[in-house]
Amino acid sequence: QFFSSVHQKNITADSGQDNVTLPCRAPNNNSIVVVKYNRTDLGSEYVALYQDGYFVPDEQHPSYETRVDLQDEDMKDGDVSVILKNVKMNDTGTYKCHVAQREPNQERAMLKLLSSITLRVVDPPVLEQTQCRISRARRQRNVCWNRVTLLDSPVGRSLRVCLCR
Fold first, then answer.
1. Which listed CATH number (3.40.600.10, 2.60.40.10, 3.30.530.20, 3.30.390.30) goes with 7-122?
2. Rounded alpha-carbon distances, angstroms, from residue 52 to 60, 61, 99, 120
3. What is the DSSP letter of 124?
């Protein structure tokens, strides 16, 4: 019997991040013949299609060419997660992972939806610089202070680090 519930996952990544993993796992050890990732807003073009041991580029959306790989090419323990490289703001969306496995007593393997991943890509943290001035009249040898704050705003996230010596 094939797993009937769809695993749902929300992921946030920074734009420009090297990689983000879109997780998906087949529930049993039957032979995996097709892995297909699509995004709900891309129409008939897909993010990745892996069939019979090879990636199929025929109808892959151009923005994903050379940017997706299986996390584990051997798909050990049913791991059919993909790695999305060079994350971009336009990668925001809902991704669907479909898998077809060769089942006993079944002529044809059918694609089944296993996972729905909502990826939210945000602007990376912005580093703000703050200056520190020390009056020489006070004869202080050194002053140290620091502050790290991660701020969420409607515009994006920013990281404030203050350090003065």
1. 2.60.40.10
2. 17, 20, 12, 31
3. P
Mean predicted lDDT score pLDDT of the chain = 81
Nearest to 71 by CA among 9, 22, 29: 22
- This prediction has a pTM of 0.73
Terminal CA-CA length for the chain: 65
Question: By the 8 A CB rule, do 161 and 131 touch?
Answer: no
Q: Note the pLDDT tens digit of each residue in 88-120.
A: 999 999 999 999 988 777 778 889 999 999 999
Query: What's the angle, vertex CA 154, arms to CA 153 and CA 160, rounded to 5?
Result: 25
**Is 93 in contact with 116 (CB distance < 8 Å)?**
no
Q: Is residue 148 a contact partner of residue 126, using CB atoms and an 8 Å limit? A: no
Residues in contact with 114: Cβ distance below 8 Å, sequence separation at least 6, in sequence order: 3, 6, 7, 24, 25, 26, 27, 80, 97, 98, 99
